[in-house]
């Protein structure tokens, strides 16, 4: 297409959707910056042989692919200078956004963020998005009504490998609230050897304490930085140094010229790790008493020699501990846990016994369900930091339910998980999207890993379609493990390349459909004969 001074119409490698995107870039070979670019989907496939492909950076979110100007058969670009004069203003790789306050996350925003990493499952995404938004809505209510509004807990049902656990992982990075993910199989009934379900809330509170400390340290960042600088200058110049001497060293310190110089730093005596291990069965009161005893035993300070680079971090930790009192941190953490805490219980179907297989109570199944009832319904859990009320903690449970049905859960537990969301199995088209749409998809990960060895890996679109087809076929004929099958298939295809990567430095390795069929021939020929074994 012809290049104009105001707009450029170009093509991008995409997953097959029609998109209109705004992108900021600068073209050195134009006399003015271009700030509006129209993209139109052109499915040419990853790594397809083209006359030239120019990588661009983007300020917008396009899932899964580098944005690229493509000139190939039937497409030309006219310009005053060659294409290498193109300058990128922003990298195409985008990191996960930092956690945001609930007031900044609308349900649509949450779904958009989840779409960047998870294919399909719109129902589950919407249910989670609404539940998270309701947390913020409840805080806007009058105090009397606020206490009456309880969270609507969620039960996600779907086969393995369709995105249940991935939704939990992404929520943890997305929300700025206490969050914990646990496996239901790790717990046993109270009185039996194993973890008590009350430990879930204790661990959630510890996560909340870390979260509150991080927030407070950000607020005190400037104050701590000033103190650290003065403390280091005291060690370098002494307390009675002249202002001129102190300021000259301050300038050197800010320029980074003194980072390797050693100074003495006074720091508190640290406890030796693993001095005493206390089981989960110990009461919070016992744990608190023992913790106080060892705190007294290890009181005191010591001077240690370290570089200024190391001392800066050590002094920051010491000063932050002085400014952030345990009482205020604990109070805020308990409040955050009670009002905004989120617990994700994975593999809940593994503590469920099928209705046609009853052989008495089991401490690892029905016993755990009984212990979860008061936790989810709302109760006060004793911790070494204080009591935590679980009335307003949001619980999200998930399970594949292969061997049993959701109705096999205890009726009381079913009632405490009122919102049911069914996640669908993955089709061949879904598997192809998983390879292309998510921002940091599996193919992209392998490309970047091999790039560290100097190997340029190119995977054609035909190869991606063949990989998706093979994964779908194996899932149907052997065992359906969803998107996890793609890991197996890709590792089989790239096994030789990964092994020989150090010897392929500077070379380009192209994976096409023929390579895929050749690498996976054995996998396709083998038949699961286990059903015929007597």
TrEMBL record:
One of its GO terms (biological process) is proteolysis involved in protein catabolic process. Keywords: ATP-binding, Chaperone, Nucleotide-binding. SUPFAM superfamilies: P-loop containing nucleoside triphosphate hydrolases. The keyword ATP-binding applies. Residues 150-427 form the AAA+ ATPase domain. It comes from Compsopogon caeruleus. Residues 426-520 form the Clp ATPase C-terminal domain. One of its GO terms (molecular function) is ATP binding. It comes from the Eukaryota. InterPro entries: AAA+_ATPase (IPR003593), ATP-dep_Clp_protease_ClpX (IPR050052), ATPase_AAA_core (IPR003959), Clp_ATPase_C (IPR019489), HslU (IPR004491), P-loop_NTPase (IPR027417). This is Uncharacterized protein. SMART domains: AAA (SM00382), ClpB_D2-small (SM01086). Transmembrane segments: none annotated. The keyword ATP-binding applies. Belongs to the ClpX chaperone family. HslU subfamily. One of its GO terms (cellular component) is HslUV protease complex.
């Amino acid at each position: 297409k012809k290049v104009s001074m105001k707009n450029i119409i170009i093509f991008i490698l995409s997953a097959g959707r029609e998109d209109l995107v705004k992108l900021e870039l600068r073209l050195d070979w134009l006399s003015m910056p271009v700030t509006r670019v129209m993209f139109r989907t052109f499915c040419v496939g990853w790594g397809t042989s083209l006359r030239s492909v120019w990588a661009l950076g983007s300020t917008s979110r396009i899932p899964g692919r580098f944005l690229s100007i493509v000139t190939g058969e039937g497409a030309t670009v006219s310009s005053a200078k060659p294409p290498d004069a193109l300058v990128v203003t922003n990298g195409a790789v985008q990191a996960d956004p930092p956690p945001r306050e609930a007031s900044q996350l609308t349900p649509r925003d949450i779904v958009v963020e989840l779409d960047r990493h998870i294919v399909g499952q719109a129902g589950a995404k919407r249910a989670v998005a609404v539940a998270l938004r309701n947390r913020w809505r409840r805080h806007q209510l009058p105090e009397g009504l606020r206490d009456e509004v309880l969270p609507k807990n969620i039960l996600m049902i779907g086969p393995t490998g369709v995105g249940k656990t991935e939704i939990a992982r992404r929520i943890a990075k997305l929300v700025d609230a206490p969050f914990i993910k646990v496996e239901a199989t790790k717990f046993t009934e109270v009185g039996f050897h194993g973890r008590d379900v009350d430990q879930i809330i204790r661990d959630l509170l510890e996560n909340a304490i870390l979260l509150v400390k991080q927030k407070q340290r950000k607020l005190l960042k400037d104050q701590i930085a000033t103190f650290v600088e003065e403390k280091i200058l005291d060690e370098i110049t002494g307390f009675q140094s002249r202002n001129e001497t102190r300021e000259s060293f301050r300038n050197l310190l800010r320029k980074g010229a003194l980072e390797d110089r050693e100074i003495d730093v006074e720091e508190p005596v640290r406890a030796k790790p693993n001095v005493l291990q206390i089981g989960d069965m110990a009461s919070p009161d016992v744990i608190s008493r023992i913790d106080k005893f060892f705190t007294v035993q290890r009181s005191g300070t010591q001077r240690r020699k370290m570089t200024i680079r190391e001392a800066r971090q050590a002094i920051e930790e010491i000063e932050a501990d002085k400014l952030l009192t345990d009482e205020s941190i604990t109070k805020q953490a308990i409040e955050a846990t009670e009002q905004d805490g989120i617990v994700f219980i994975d593999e809940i179907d593994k503590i469920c016994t099928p209705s046609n297989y009853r052989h008495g109570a089991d401490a690892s199944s029905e016993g755990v369900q009984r212990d979860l009832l008061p936790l989810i319904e709302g109760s006060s859990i004793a911790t070494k930091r204080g009591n935590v009320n679980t009335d307003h903690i949001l619980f999200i449970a998930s399970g594949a339910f292969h061997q049993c049905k959701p109705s096999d859960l205890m009726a009381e537990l079913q009632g405490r998980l009122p919102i049911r969301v069914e996640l669908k199995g993955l089709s061949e088209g879904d598997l192809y999207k998983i390879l292309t749409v998510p921002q940091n998809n599996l193919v992209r990960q392998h490309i970047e890993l091999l790039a560290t060895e100097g190997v340029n890996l190119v995977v054609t679109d035909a190869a991606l379609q063949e990989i998706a087809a093979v994964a779908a076929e194996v899932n149907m004929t052997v065992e359906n493990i969803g998107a996890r099958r793609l890991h197996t298939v890709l590792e089989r295809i790239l096994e030789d390349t990964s092994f020989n990567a150090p010897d392929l430095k500077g070379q380009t390795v192209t994976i096409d459909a023929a390579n895929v069929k050749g690498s996976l021939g054995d996998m396709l020929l083998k038949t699961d004969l286990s059903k015929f074994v007597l």
